[in-house]
Amino acid sequence: MKLWGGRFTKETNQLVHNFNASLSFDRKFYRQDIEGSIAHVTMLAKQQILTDAERDEIIKGLKGILSDIDNDILDLDNSEHEDIHSFVEAHLIERIGNVGKKLHTGRSRNDQVALDMKLYTRDELKETDALLKDLLETILKIMDENTETYMPGFTHLQKAQPITLAHHMGAYFEMFKRDRSRIADIIKRMNTSPIGSGALAGTTYPLDREYTASLLNFDCATLNSMDSVADRDYLIEMLSAFSTIMMHLSRFCEEFIIWNSNEYRFIELDDAYSTGSSIMPQKKNPDIAELVRGKTGRVYGALVSLLTTMKGLPLAYNKDMQEDKEFTFDAIDTTKGCIKLFTGMLATTHFNKDVMEESAKNGFTNATDVADYLVNHGVPFRDAHGIVGQLVLMCIEKDIPLDKLPLDEYKKICPAFEEDIYEAISIRTCVEKRVTIGAPGKDAMKKVIAIYKDYLK
User: Fold this and answer.
1) Segment 92-114, tens digit of pLDDT
2) Cα atoms found within 13 Å of the Cα of residue 288, Cβ hemisphere only
3) Known catalytic residue at 37
4) Which of 24, 156, 274, 385 is catalytic?
5) Residue from 214, 277, 350, 377 carrying the catalytic annotation
6) With contact defined as beta carbons under 8 Å apart, do 207 and 111 qualify?
7) Does the annotation mark 350 as catalytic?
8) Distance between CA 39 and CA 30 in Å, rounded?
């Protein structure tokens, strides 16, 4: 069944039908399509465009179709219907007769697909937000258990200053927290109902669009019927937000891949989230982290594809916009899958705390604290910077860390050094004296963790 054809005298060429059809992918929102149709006929009866009896018969038929699809009684795979809208309507008419033909009163496929896509997108955004919350809870658990797990912090992949594992994880907590706020913004901005906009110019029927919007939990109806059917901004925003989520996951994965290497040995990935080599029996590869990193480009591609599709389209609806679905659906599935897998990998990762601390001690991460020590003893910072540079060079030549350099060697370069230098530059002291909010000191971290726990409530 086609929802059009009265003015056509020939059947559509089969290749044209196949090229034009979208059921193979828009079947994903069959539930939203039926949900929207139920709200639409409920409104039509309220406005006395349909009778209550017609409404009830149509809704019963739609619910039966929904149940049969859910239970695999109706086969979406081998259907010749053009799209999910014609599939549902054809089966409705087959089941309840001519009254089913009244379902489409006062709407077009243009506003119908716009509604379906919004409902589907809103549902998927909420599911993604829940997955991000699970990931944040996993990160927070690691933070709470590791406020005294010392490790090097890096800039340019060079050891910089000592921090804690809790502090390092907190940086990713902030990233994914921002991702959740972006999702909330998108839901808030997109939560307007396009149904009732018709093909582009509304309808002559006395629809109550605000009522339909309330039935579908939208904040209000859209205010311009042309924009209603031509708008895909919310998809672009979602794909942008998902690209950012994937970028954050990719950065996290990159660090885990490095930390998992023999050279670092900061972590041990669980066997359930690793694979082996077909030829090298000793290998334990971080394939999940690498795949998440690799799939980031796939989501980026969806964003660029939709931007490219929309960039030259005149108002209002154009068939090009059918291209919004396949790569959007793929990006949604990819992002959700990556978040879920990464959360599992992170939750089962073993952190080699002794290795981390030893790495912090042997990388001159306390060099800045030596300079701060001199400043506190009256030496100008710029002079202190130069003095510490000389000390580091001496330690490199002797192949020892700063805290193993004898005091007399310190004094040869600057007499301001005393015995208390060793306590001042211990890894624990270097971390714990950083007490401003956002810093890695234990007291500061405990305050931040408390804030995060309140946030997740």
Assistant:
1) 999 999 999 999 999 999 999 99
2) 23
3) no
4) 156
5) 277
6) no
7) no
8) 14
